[in-house]
Design brief:
binds adenosine monophosphate; binds tryptophan; globular; 354 residues; 13 helices
Length: 354
């Protein structure tokens, strides 16, 4: 794994230390909640996944069942699911090495989620801050039971695969803690069944901010489109967005998150996409204006995303082949997941069909 100054982790696990013989398991996923991923997903998640996939037995899912907790148009959800998978592959997740699949293709996920819901406290689930935020934001009418049990389904995703590490953004930390609690509780009641997973959380320096509002996280659901760099946007559109990014009146390219959030964010993106160190970029642009700096970044964005976009569009041109790849990977996922689910059903005393 390449070490970059902005991507240090709070819980770093050296490959091989967890399991000397076989590779340790890694699990992560993203919701198919937009037509395109944004640069925060790419830098904050996909680049990490790509770096880690060789050292771990990695499972990456497109969590379409989780996406149902928001209103969706059915045809669009299907399309977003394929698009998300295509972008994983285009960004370098190898479906022949990593198990890249669609959550709803493996029925064990909602099955285990039901079992786990019976050992989750109502108050415990109610303390999840993401649920509290979303239910407050969208109001009682849109707050479904599914939104409430969302973290339990996420726990099932992770525990089905006997996962050792879960690389996620900071906002998911509480959900991983719940997952650990549920695993420990189940193990204590019914005997060792689940591996207790560890989160691998990016430091907040790896958080990418909105180009127009550089104190807010770049997100698939931002208010203004001008602040979001989409992976599947035409590169010339992304270049324009970079040129229009908010900076400050000082005119010097230097990292200072507090006083220069706009420029600092651009520096983090620049460093991430080129694999360079921030001080080297500061030196390169010392005494030059923001215009030059933005041109350099726009070029880096086009160089990095141009090929990713082209590859994703190529994959989406042949949806039948993409579906075949996903089906094959779902078979591998189901094998692992069903083995865990069978043990769970036995342990809790369900009469098995013979
Ligand atoms: P989401 O788009 O919220 O479903 O997030 C999917 C993954 O991308 C998670 O692991 C997030 O932590 C990561 N992610 C999303 N937005 C950003 C961002 N602005 N900066 C860094 N990572 C992000
Ligand atoms: N809740 C996660 C997010 O919004 C997505 C997710 C679902 C996930 N299941 C997971 C992430 C399992 C890691 C592991 O980002």
């Amino acid at each position: 794994m390449t070490t970059r100054p902005w991507s240090s982790t709070t819980a770093s696990v050296e490959p091989g230390t967890l399991d000397q013989v076989t590779k340790a398991r890694l699990y992560s996923g993203m919701q198919p909640s937009a037509d395109s991923l944004q640069v925060g997903n790419y830098i904050g998640a996909l680049m990490q996944w790509r770096d880690l996939q060789d050292s771990y037995d990695a499972f990456f899912s497109v969590v379409d069942l989780h996406a149902l907790t928001q209103p969706n148009d059915p045809a669009e959800l299907r399309e977003k699911t394929r698009r998300t998978a295509a972008q994983y592959i285009a960004a370098g997740i190898e479906p022949s090495r990593s198990t890249l699949y669609v959550q709803s293709h493996v029925a064990a996920h909602p099955e285990l989620a039901w079992i786990l819901s019976t050992i989750t406290g109502f108050g415990e689930a109610g303390r999840m801050t993401q649920f509290k935020d979303k239910s407050q934001r969208y109001g009682a009418d849109v707050t479904s039971v599914g939104l409430f049990t969302y973290p339990i389904l996420m726990a099932a995703d992770i525990l089905l695969y006997q996962t050792n590490i879960v690389p996620v953004g900071d906002d998911q930390k509480q959900h991983i803690e719940l997952t650990r609690d549920l695993a420990e509780r189940f193990n204590a009641r019914y005997g060792e069944t689940f591996t207790v997973p560890m989160p691998v959380i990016q430091q907040d320096t790896a958080r990418i901010y909105d180009l127009q509002n550089p104190t807010a996280k770049m997100s698939k659901s931002a208010e203004s489109d001008a602040g979001t760099l989409w992976l599947l946007d035409d590169p010339s559109v992304s270049a324009k967005k970079v040129m229009r990014a908010v900076t400050d009146s000082e005119g010097s390219v230097r990292y200072d998150r507090e006083n220069k959030p706009g420029v600092s964010n651009l520096l983090v993106i620049y460093a991430a996409l080129t694999g360079r160190q921030i001080p080297a970029i500061e030196d390169e642009y010392a005494g030059r204006g923001y215009g030059d700096f933005k041109k350099g970044l726009a070029e880096a964005v086009v160089n990095e995303f141009g090929p990713v976009r082209a590859r994703a569009l190529e994959l989406l041109d042949d949806p039948a082949e993409l579906d075949r790849v996903l089906a094959k990977n779902a078979d591998r996922a189901a094998e692992v997941a069903n083995a865990t689910l069978n043990t769970v059903y036995d342990r809790i005393g369900l009469l098995r069909r013979r």
